[in-house]
Amino acid sequence: MIDTRAVYVLWLREVKRYSRSPSRIVSTIAMPILLLIFLGLGFRQANFGGILPKSISYISFLVPGIIGMSLLSTSVFAGISVLWDREFGFLKEITVAPINNLSIVIGRAIGGSTTSMIQSIIVLIVAMVIGFSSENLIGFVTILIPMFLISIIFISLGLILAANMTDIQGFGMIMNLVVFPLFLLSGALFPIKALPSYIYVFSYLDPLTYGVDAMRGILCNLSAFPVVFDIFISSIFVIILLSAAVYFFNKSESK
Amino acid sequence: MCIISIKNLTKQFDNLVAVDHISFKVKKGEIFGLLGPNGAGKTTTVNMLCTLLTPTSGYAKVDEHDVYKNKVEIRKSIGLVFQEPALDSYLTARENLEFHAMIYGMEKKERNKRIDEMLNLVELKDKADELIGNFSGGMKRRLEIARGLIHKPKILFLDEPTLGLDVQTRRHIWGYINKLNKKEKITIILTTHYLEEADRLCDRIAIIDHGRIIVTDSPHKLKEKLGGDIISLKINNNFSRFANELGRLKWIREVKASKGNMNLFLTVKEGNRAIPKIVYLAQKLKIKINEIDLHKPSLEDVFVHFTGSSIRERENNGKLKLENLRKKMVPAK
Ligand SMILES: Nc1ncnc2c1ncn2[C@@H]1O[C@H](COP(=O)(O)OP(=O)(O)OP(=O)(O)O)[C@@H](O)[C@H]1O
Ligand SMILES: [Mg+2]
Predict the structure, then answer these.
(1) Is A4 an 8 Å CB contact of chain B?
(2) How many CB atoms lie within 10 A of CB A49?
(3) Is the Cβ atom of B53 under 6 angstroms away from ligand 1?
(4) Partner-chain residue, chosen from A3, A20, A96, that has the shortest CB–CB distance to B75
């Protein structure tokens, strides 16, 4: 049912496009790195009075959150970039090919997740340069698992949004009304429990909450839930959102 | 031996009927043209046959497969060049073709051979590894034609293949289309609003207007249907009077008048004998003729005959309509 060659070629296209647009690479890496430097160094001396355990520095707390943010924004962007394909006509070339939408969605998801993970790894390396360190060296490998899950979740979300949008006008709105709230609710900048309870209940609905928590558990040994639980919940989100993306692709095609 | 047959095919968008109960058959190996002005429903028809749009009603079979039921089978056996450009500008020419070949499931060896073959056909071999972002419109079009052929389709759809290209490039593309029709024995459906293109390339033409097919035949037979020569006149004054006078004459088979630009089109049996008589009549009525032209019927005349206006007028201004002054219709004064 999944056409591996189609998945591969969609992946290849995404990676080639990515490697050929240096401005896109730079602009999407710049934002997380600036946040990391200014928040990380700016709050270096701050005393969070009970919000954070004494044993952990703010920058250590922040790094998994910023990686989460980087994954979130680049993945939603990768998903929504279907709109550009539509604008420049290339979408028809893919649509009229004799392959099913499941293969198309998987190909796009894996392609987008590759580029978005590469960016996040660059952010992690920069973080290490400015002083982030982790005792858990294996963590640098295992963190790829939540990274992968987060990126697939948000690419699927981007694909779902794109399938339901008629033009690229709504793009800015999506970034502000979807990406930003998901980022703020996820506990990327501070523990969600620091929020009033009537706000943080929404954090439990935000897939990024579990992804960031898992990465923090792996890199900093600090997490609200067991890491295995975070991975489990994220996997459920992956299945639901991927299926929804395929559903909406099928729906938008059968006009 | 019909590779495509459609019957009463209809597509309705909200309250606009874009394609209205059209029927035709396409024979294997022929170049079949859909000729019509902007908004006639050509692209909508092509999209239904390519399974990109589901028809509202009607019947259509492409290569023995039903458009409602066997979408994947149809997609495998057709190649398509869209009206709008559909290339990835971040990829090179070869990469665009490779993407296509892979998504259609071709093996590496066969793929590379075929890509080279097609790049040769459209004379883009030396540009193969350049990003297509820098290609001209004509080069992109050629590449798209090559791409439509990579997976060896039985039927190739070309939606306005030369739209917006200069005359020289257009001729070039006609050359490729003819060549591959002969060499690859491929059936070609092409849409166009260029009369010359339809005339030169197509074995048969369906004239489509307002979503309806007006007539289907070979260019030659269509011209014969007019039954005579065409005289076109450009008048300086007293347009309606002259048109009415001509309308009464028995030896003129048909009079079509375009008041907007003072043009008259007459269909007559022997044009060379008719001209002196017409000039004489004009002098008698003190009407000044600016231009006069006699020719064998062209596809343009066919179009005027069957739709009541010329395709160019229709493109420029939908309302500029030719009045039909066929004798029977002219009220006696
Ligand atoms: N998706 C759509 N929704 C609503 N109306 C549509 C849609 N697609 C086409 N139409 C309308 O259907 C009619 C026929 O359009 P179509 O694109 O088939 O014409 P065409 O013959 O290809 O013209 P052109 O030479 O401009 O390409 C037009 O009036 C067009 O506005
Ligand atoms: Mg069209």
Answers:
(1) no
(2) 6
(3) no
(4) A96
Look at the domain B2-217 and name its fold: Rossmann fold (3.40.50)
Q: What is the pLDDT of residues A152-192, one digit of tens each?
A: 999 999 999 999 887 778 877 887 889 999 999 999 998 88
- The SS3 of residue B194 is coil
A-chain residue closest to B105, CA distance: A5
Tell me the torsion sign for CA atoms B116, B122, B126, B129.
negative
B84: closest CA of chain A, how far (Å): 7
Q: Is B102 on the interface with A (CB under 8 A)?
A: yes
Model's pTM, two decimal places? Answer: 0.86
Sequence spans of domains, chain A:
4-253
Domain boundaries, chain B: 2-217, 223-319
Distance separating alpha carbons of residues B173 and B175, to the nearest angstrom: 5
Q: Looking at the domain B223-319, which fold is it?
A: Alpha-Beta Plaits (3.30.70)
- A89–B52 C-beta distance less than 8 A: no
Do residue A13 and residue B88 have CB atoms under 8 angstroms apart? yes
- For ligand 1, say whether the CB of B36 is within 6 Å of any of its atoms: yes
Can you give the C-alpha Rg of chain A in angstroms? Answer: 18
Q: Which residues contact A29 (CB under 8 A, 6 or more apart)?
A: A70, A119, A122, A123
Report pLDDT digits (tens) over B97-108.
Answer: 999 999 999 999
The residue type of A248 is: F
